[in-house]
Amino acid sequence: MKKRPLFKISNSEKGMALIAVLIVIIVASILGLSLMGLAASNVKMSTGERDNQSSYYIAESGATLLMSEITTKINDIYKNAKTSSEFYSAAVPIVDNYKVERQETNFEKNFGSQPVAKLKVEPIDLTNRIYKIISSGTVDNRTKTVEQQFQLRWSVNFPKTAVFVDNKIKVDSNASIINGSIGTNSIVDKAIELFNESSLQNGSEIIVGPNAPRQGQGVVYPYYSSQKIKVLDEEISLELKPFKATPAPTYPMTLGGTFPIGQDGNMNISSNTTISGMPDVVSINNVIIDNNTTLTIDVGAKDVEMFVKNFELKNNSVLYVKGSGKLHIYVDGSLKINNSEIKTENSQKDKIIIYLRKSSDPNNPKTVTASSSGTGINCSIFAEDALFDFTGGTFRGRFVTGGNVEVGGNNVIEGAIIAKNMHLKGSSSITFVEQDALLPLPSFKVNPIKIDPVREK
């Protein structure tokens, strides 16, 4: 009897297909589960990244919202303020109100979650009135925080320059000299064009506009290695703040109890005259000082504001101001000072300030002319748009205009010039004298709130 083997080896392939199918199903299942896990992980990561980005944008939006709100209020205060103390006394409490944290929820929902921004202001440097906004944005329990720094300011530090312009300074004579630093807001080539190296004395500094290429070397022509060029951090505003409005006329009246102003409102000085006891504010029509005549105004210990339509000093006439106070003259129409003199007691250049309003025709600005060596101006003149055409005389003070300045002939200017453009020719000199140049400093329009970019904390 034959014995059967315990195991029979068969060459049949029956059942292999089933095994293959099972293997494929198992592999596919493993891959599927892996892909599902990876997808779930990616979804989770994407959701987290989305929430992170969303929370940052909410924080940034909150900072922008609060900054806009503060800026609007500060600008309104700045427009109405007449002095720096008035501005800061009103602006600082406004900012202080935002030290208490508040919540903003006025955002669209983010995948069903309500975004929230928490906002507040913290002081950084109270002396210089520097603050920062802190804004925290939260979306679905994810939070991002940003900061934005800002500074309240009434004015900016004006450089100590003999000449500063918005655009171009040109010196085209070997005999013309500037003793002191010069500057421009411009960054274009040859914005400052000197005749030669001797045009600028004593190795003075040259200031050029922000982000000037090649550190400003192209702005100055010709460029000499001895010149010290400084690039501004920001442009300096040369736009004058609006002058005080002219009050209603006060004539007929008697100035100082002795000098009559008639129905025509004119003040005609035909002989040497002294007026004292002036009112604080006087509004009249025309002031005309006749040939070879002196008008002396004794303001005493107070500041006097005189509003006039036209102001004219005729040939060899003199306006002389006495007292410890100051005289501010606001001229609506024309200002004529050729071959005449404006002077003060003890040569105090800040005792008289003349404010010349702009022309009613933007295409035809006013002109202030001085073409005689007999012209002597010892005061500051602030003009909104006038052309200063100085070809003869001596000028001591600060001369500011939104228009151009032409200096030719044989002028001597001690103090400072601020203008749109300045052209120096002939044999004239401009010398920076700090006392004459900086007293007083005119009030230029500035951005009352300097804002830095938003940064993530």
- Total helices: the number is 3
Low-confidence stretches: none
Summarize the main sheet: 22 strands, parallel
Q: Can you tell me the number of structural domains?
A: 2
Question: How far do the termini sit from each other?
Answer: 95 Å
**What share of the residues lie within helices?**
10-25%
Outline type: elongated
Q: Strand content of the residues, in percent? A: 35-45%
Which radius of gyration do the C-alpha atoms yield? Answer: 37 Å
- Got a strand count? 34
Average pLDDT, rounded to a whole number, is 89
Structural class: alpha/beta
Structure write-up:
It contains three helices and 34 strands. The chain is of the alpha/beta class and 457 residues long. The chain has two domains: 45-155 and 447-456, no CATH class; 240-438. The strands form four sheets. The chain has a 22-stranded parallel β-sheet that branches. A hairpin with a 3-residue loop joins strand 13 and strand 14. The protein is elongated, with a radius of gyration of 37 Å.
Describe the structure concisely for a colleague.
With 457 residues, this protein is of the alpha/beta class.
Topology, element by element:
Layout: H1 16-80, H2 84-96, E1 102-104, E2 116-125, E3 130-139, E4 142-152, E5 163-165, E6 169-171, E7 177-179, E8 182-184, E9 192-193, E10 205-208, E11 220-221, E12 228-231, E13 253-255, E14 259-261, E15 267-269, E16 273-276, E17 281-283, E18 286-289, E19 294-298, E20 304-308, E21 310-313, E22 318-322, E23 327-331, E24 335-336, E25 341-344, E26 352-356, E27 367-378, E28 380-383, E29 387-401, E30 404-419, E31 421-424, E32 429-432, H3 434-438, E33 449-451, E34 455-456
Parallel strand pairs: 5-8, 5-30, 6-9, 6-31, 7-32, 8-10, 9-11, 10-12, 15-18, 16-19, 17-20, 18-21, 19-22, 20-23, 21-24, 22-25, 23-26, 25-27, 26-28, 27-29, 28-29, 29-30, 30-31, 30-32
Antiparallel strand pairs: 1-2, 2-3, 3-4, 4-33, 4-34, 13-14
Helix pairs in contact: 1-2
